[in-house]
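Q: Entry one of two.
A:
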Amino acid sequence: MIHNVITSIAQRLDEFIKNKLSIKADTVIVSNLVDIKGNLNQDIENKVTIFLLHIEEENITKNTSMKYSIGETPPVKVNLLVMFSAYFPNFNYVESLHYISLVIEFFQINTTFDDSNTPGLPISANKIKAELFNISIDEINKLWGNIGANYLPSVSYKFKHIIFDGETITQDIPKIV
């Protein structure tokens, strides 16, 4: 289900950027920034790249008074921490900043995602809330070092309240290229 959530929101973001800039070329890719050998992925050039930073259990709603039958396991609610980075090589740093600004604008306008406004999103996803996620300078330094890439203009968001109930039927959607 995680792949459906991220790729569905990526498709909406891609359409938003293409409409804003009046372009036809794809602008968003769901991908690693570097390959297993530490080489920069060439597919991310001149695009916004989306990648998963972390999955955390949603603890606030965990202790709600929902009733379950004996032997039934309660659903697991998770939050996805997702990074959006823009890589425009050479002297196009300003373009990277422009694209990151468009990502922020997109999420300012679109704070909630569900199956009615985001094609490909699983019906069981209910309402996914997107909120800006702050990462400290020290954490961001460690993060980019662990990724194995130099810092790129980026912004992080938390996608909240994704429910895994064990009986969810999901469909795969096409890969974002």
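Q: Entry two of two.
A:
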Amino acid sequence: MRTKILGKTGLSVSALGFGAMRLRGLDQAEADRVVNHALDRGITYVDTAAEYGDSEEKLGKAISHRRSEYVLATKTQKRTYQEAMQEIEQSLRRLQTDYLDILQIHYVNYPHEYRDVKKADGALRAAEEMRAKGYVGHIGITGHRPELLTRWLQDYPFATVLFHLSMVQPFAKQELMPMAESLDVGMIAMKPISGPFLSKVKESLRYSAASSAHVVLSGMQSIAEVDFNIEALAQEVAAEERMALEEMAVGLDEHGCRRCNYCSCPLGIRIPDTLIPSRYREKFGLLEVGEELWQKSADHFAACMTYEPCREKPLCQQACPYHLPIQQEIRRAIDEKVM
């Protein structure tokens, strides 16, 4: 497994990171097998969050006895000092460790959320206190809006930043990644196959790995997935292949969706899961589970066109911070008969 230095943290990390969110779908015995296999194969970056069900507990039981072998990152989505402190302490207990290499302020997508965590009684104060006491090594931030993350990296000395990066969500390349690189911030690129969607898995992993990101973070739930991902990223991406992958990705981001999840649909359309894979689906098709998710939304597409509260200005578009023409995208899907 290739390794890199994670920016100004100085931590040596594997180019492939183990995303532990999907452990909540496994029993403890299988979680033990999968995560220990990942460590045996050379993965040294493990990422979880307090919000990921029982993921932290399963990790603690599975690999806490091998604590010196991996860099451990978890997250708090709490915004106040007291709540964040309680959650960080809980994470330490669940993970059966006395230190976190990285504590990330999680899912910060709006300016008011950032202001909240930076208040005198905000979550950042809790993270800083735990760092001063030796329970936290470095403080990072995560979010789904790269232009805001770019701004916040300039405002506070975060050591790491976690963001989407895939063929269908390359937006971090525009401003965020150059800024992080200039500040020597550790870059962790998540969702290289956009959750369960992109069918050309190897190419998708290598697209993300061809960037300046230090870690490509992939959610894994089986030994087969671990082995596949490791083999996919075994070799560095050469210039010729990088150009081919960039060409493959041309136009796949025209939907414009960042998956900030501030839109909603009263009809049950999963808007990010509709927009983000839309162009990719037309060109390459989706993984089976991704196609099933698409169809759940597609069942409601026709109703979207006649839903009275959305006739003049769709509710989802009013909520979208990017003012995307969401209903127009859904109409396009109907017109193109790609359902």
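A: Comment on entry two: The first strand starts at residue 3 and ends at 5. Residues 176 and 215 are 15 Å apart (CA to CA).
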